[in-house]
């Protein structure tokens, strides 16, 4: 999920702390709980500092080690300890550590629901795991949790507890419904394309709009589903091998994409000034006008790398919402 959503979930998680009589009766402890849930809800994304090294390094490591199983406990222990010391509530270290752990675990869980995915089972499994059921920013969940925060601010502790409890109950029900709905759409796509080899269905910004990509023996089929309407959009044939493609396989940005992508696709063009432009992408994140997530490698006529870059070529508010 995006940073704003993570922090919002951290705020409503803190509201559940009022179920504890100690938290409800001690403003310093309540503030400490809010501190650990806000920090914990964002802590795994501190791996963004790698962006200062290069975009390649950032995409290679983001949602990796900092989201791994050992990191859950390290973040929780560090955040809980610092907050208990800073707020002078050392006798509540265990409580604060548990809330910090919940915030970190929920951060990783919400990233798992997104199509981009997360390496949350490191070091036991390096695979990127993704449920493909929620957008990076889910408007419904934002409204639910903003409402809960507003009730907490203007209604006091009593309303904060009930509002946050209802918000989290609604969230769990909503995620379960999205999971089941995604399964229904996935089965529809598989029935339509009987010769599928792989199928991915990604959520749109609105509830009943999905986009899909299907790999078959002949290539890739892509389109949208809006309710019961099918909107086939594009078909890509398999690309024949070429020396310029082989020359890019071991380039750093392409290796980064290889380690992440589920449905790799590559194309190449001859440049007007000589050389080649080779573009690799993950077709899960297709859109009609271009490939928003891609690695571009420019080669000269001798197949030497002239330039390379990798990244997202889209605005945050543009589809796909990952």
TrEMBL record:
InterPro entries: Transcription_regulator (IPR053170), YdjM-like (IPR007404)
Keyword Membrane recorded: yes
Keyword set, alphabetical order: Hydrolase, Membrane, Transmembrane, Transmembrane helix
Keyword set includes Kinase: no
Superkingdom of origin organism: Bacteria
Gene Ontology MF term list: hydrolase activity
Annotated TM spans: 69-87, 93-112, 133-154, 160-180
Designated name of the protein: Metal-dependent hydrolase
Species of provenance: Cohnella herbarum
């Amino acid at each position: 999920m995006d940073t704003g959503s993570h922090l919002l979930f951290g705020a409503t998680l803190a509201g559940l702390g009022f179920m504890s009589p100690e938290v409800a009766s001690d403003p310093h402890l309540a503030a400490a709980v809010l501190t650990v849930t806000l920090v914990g809800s964002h802590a795994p994304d501190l791996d963004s500092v790698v962006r200062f090294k290069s975009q390649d390094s950032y995409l290679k490591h983001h949602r990796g080690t900092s989201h791994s199983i050992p990191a859950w406990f390290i973040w929780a222990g560090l955040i809980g300890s610092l907050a208990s010391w800073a707020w002078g509530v050392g006798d509540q270290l265990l409580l604060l550590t548990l809330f910090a752990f919940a915030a970190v675990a929920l951060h990783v869980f919400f990233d798992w629901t997104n199509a981009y995915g997360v390496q949350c089972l490191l070091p036991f499994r390096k695979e990127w795991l993704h449920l493909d059921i929620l957008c990076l920013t889910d408007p419904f969940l934002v409204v639910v949790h903003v409402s809960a925060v507003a009730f907490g601010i203007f209604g006091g502790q009593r309303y904060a507890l009930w509002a946050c409890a209802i918000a989290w109950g609604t969230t769990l029900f909503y995620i379960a419904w999205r999971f089941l709905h995604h399964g229904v759409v996935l089965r529809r796509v598989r029935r339509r394309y009987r010769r599928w080899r792989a199928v991915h269905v990604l959520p749109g910004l609105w509830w009943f709009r999905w986009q899909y990509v299907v790999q078959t023996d002949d290539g890739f089929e892509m389109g949208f589903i809006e309710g019961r309407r099918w909107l086939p959009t594009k078909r890509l044939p398999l690309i024949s091998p070429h020396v310029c493609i082989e020359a890019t396989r071991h380039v750093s940005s392409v290796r980064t994409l290889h380690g992440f992508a589920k449905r790799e696709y590559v194309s190449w063009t001859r440049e007007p000034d000589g050389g080649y432009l080779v573009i690799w992408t993950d077709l899960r994140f297709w859109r009609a006008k271009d490939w928003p997530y891609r690695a571009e490698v420019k080669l000269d006529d001798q197949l030497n790398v002239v330039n390379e870059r990798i990244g997202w070529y889209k605005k945050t508010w543009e589809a796909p919402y990952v």
